[in-house]
Amino acid sequence: MTAADPTQEPAEPGSELPASGRRPTGRDVARLAGVSQATVSLVFSGTESGHRVSEATRHRVREAARALGYRPQAAGRQLRLGRSGMILLAVPNILGPFFGRVLVGVHEEAGKHGLAVVVSSGWGSATLAEAATTSRFDGLLICSPDDSQLGELPSDVPAVFLDADPSAPSGGQARPTVELDVAGGMRAAVEHLVGLGHRRIGHLRSTHSAYTFRVRQAAFEAAAKGLEVVELGVTLNEGQRAARSAAHQLLSAPDRPHAVVCDDDVVASGLYQAAADLGLRIPADVSVVGMDNIPVADLLAPPLTTVDLPGEALGRVGVAALAALLRGEPVVSAAPLETGLVVRNSTCAAPADGD
């Protein structure tokens, strides 16, 4: 005699769906998926017991839950004796040096609140939503999200967005957001070059579909109004190679700019490589300004002038806000964290012709 299968005695698929306006329950999901209520509980248990159910059945249950708008997280929290003590930090690229700075701050602050941190990279909104509804994490920190990560999080999941649009709703509601003053940083970068006499300025801009880069672009355009500007897009996920290629194109032009602003320091390091390939000296032939102030900025030759984005503070403030949410306290988005230009040796006065 075989052991009982948790998927036995299913309800008839699609029977007795919830009346309009009533919040769906696990029983409703079971009816729609054609499984037992115990199976639904196993699928959304957030433990290894969920693996007692076949992958096909788990998929059917999740699809039924999605169709009904069922959110198991709230019920799961009521049933648990305590929290997992874990929070998820989601970043676009775990290899991005700036996100290492954020992680330092997150770990520092999380320890003060008795929380452990798990880091994910490149997760889409569907994966984040699933992680949030399986009770594996008490809350989410979502750093520098792209546009596809904002809409599907359940409304009852504690989440704080870092370096994100404070006006963009997620899960149908506004979320606490910790911003960086990237616009002020970009203005400071352009004004620094203008103060050195540069009037023809290049811009290696990110093509990533994220709020933080749209803000940088808008700030650059406003600060560079009235100047001669040459811009090229760079795919940040391709790293230095893509930046080096775009910088080659920019610096090989007959009317090349004698100053370039880069959307981050990794792109700036690619420009350094391209300048060396072309026999150009930094800053004598081309002044360079980056953004992020990652550790490599001070190691480049010459050291890079860049905008300091306080990633550690971003992480600390984000965790403090998330911990407050977990305690049931109201949290509002604070003023953007201050940024500042760090002037090193990669910039100098424009050539005599004023370019």
3D structure, described in words:
- The chain is of the alpha/beta class and 355 residues long.
- It has three domains: 1-70, 434 Repressor (Amino-terminal Domain); 82-179 and 312-337, Rossmann fold (3-Layer(aba) Sandwich), CATH 3.40.50; 182-309, 3-Layer(aba) Sandwich (Rossmann fold).
- It is 37% helix and 15% strand.
- The chain is built from eleven helices and eleven strands.
- A six-stranded mixed beta sheet has the order 7-6-8-9-10-11, sandwiched between helices. Strands 2-1-3-4-5 form a five-stranded parallel beta sheet, with helices on one face.
- Strand 8, helix 10 (265-277) and strand 9 (287-292) form a beta-alpha-beta unit.
- Helix 1 packs across helix 3 (55-68) and helix 5 packs parallel to helix 11 (311-326).
- The longest helix is centred in the N-terminal third of the chain and has 16 residues, at 97-112.
- It starts with 25 loop residues before the first helix and ends in a 13-residue tail after the last strand.
- Residues 1-15, 46-50 and 74-81 have low confidence and may be disordered.
- InterPro entries: HTH_LacI, LacI/GalR-like_sensor, Lambda_DNA-bd_dom_sf, Peripla_BP_I.
- Residues 24-81 form the HTH lacI-type domain.
- Keywords: DNA-binding, Transcription, Transcription regulation.
- Residues 1-26 are annotated as: Disordered.
